[in-house]
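Notes from the 1:1 (GR / supervisor)

We went over the backlog. Supervisor wanted to see one worked example end to end before approving the batch request, so GR pasted a single chain during the call. The sequence is below; no edits were made to it. Supervisor asked that the structure be written out right there so they could see what the output format looks like.
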Amino acid sequence: MKQRGRWAAHPEMLAQHSTHQAIRAMTLESLGMNSRVIYRRCLPGGPWRRLLPGVILLHNNDPTTDQLVHAALLYAGESAIVTGEEACLRYGMRLPEPESPRQIHLLVPHRQKLNSAEFVIIERTRHLPAPWLRNGIPLAPPVRATTDLVRRVRDPEIVSRILIEAVQRGSCAPRALAGELDRGTKRGTAIPRRLLAEWSDIRSVAEAEAQKLAKNLPRPPTHQNAALYDQEGHYAGRPDFWWDDVGLAWEIDSVEFHFRSADYARTLHRNTRYAALGITVVQTLPSRLRTEPKAVLNELSDAYRAAEIRPRPPVSLRPAG
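Structure output shown during the call:
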């Protein structure tokens, strides 16, 4: 009589020993399945499919993202953690659509000898961070995940969008991102280093996007981050962007960007000072710079026209006297 493994008598065992229907071939063999049987079931038209060397998907449909991630972790071993694009997406960051098929970037200890395969990028590192668990998946911390992603991007525009998203939604401080780039390999860091250096003198990283958008205005701002004073020489504020000819301020800040409630309280106090001096202020959510750029430009143009027909506020760029 032909002997069959325990899996045949108890098919539920396959579900118990798999993760999102991904399972190691070694696990199947431990349940009594012959390697030839595994191979046959993964042939075209068979009920299963091979995803990675030694990793099987227990159906033959296209795998879900979760199945790809769990299959990658099974392939790389218990010490592996997910980084790069996949980790950033799982932290809620909104990233540009990739031009190539989705890949799963994993970090593994430097001593582990393992090659990249299929859709999995294996990176051996001597600086393996402690993972952050999200829905049972070990992820590199947001700062590390972001830097691992931008090191593999060559388009400065896309790198800029990723870094801004990491700051605004991933709670990654620009200084922390620059520090992480210093600690790791220098390969692929020239573009993000340059961008982070440019942003070091900008109060809000979102201003980098605003500055680029403002170039499309018929009358771009005359000043950026310039200090304003009233007629008595009292400090009035330092708007992100300023039209000195008409006394119009544009601020790129909101509770969505600021990391502390005290920052937002200062924003409200500043806007009160502006109103008392008759300064027109346009306040824009950082997210709208990307999602509604035309609407933002229209609002600024309308505000400029309105500012032209009212008396200019009694403020100057330097203290009176």
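Supervisor's comment: The first strand starts at residue 22 and ends at 24.
Batch request approved.
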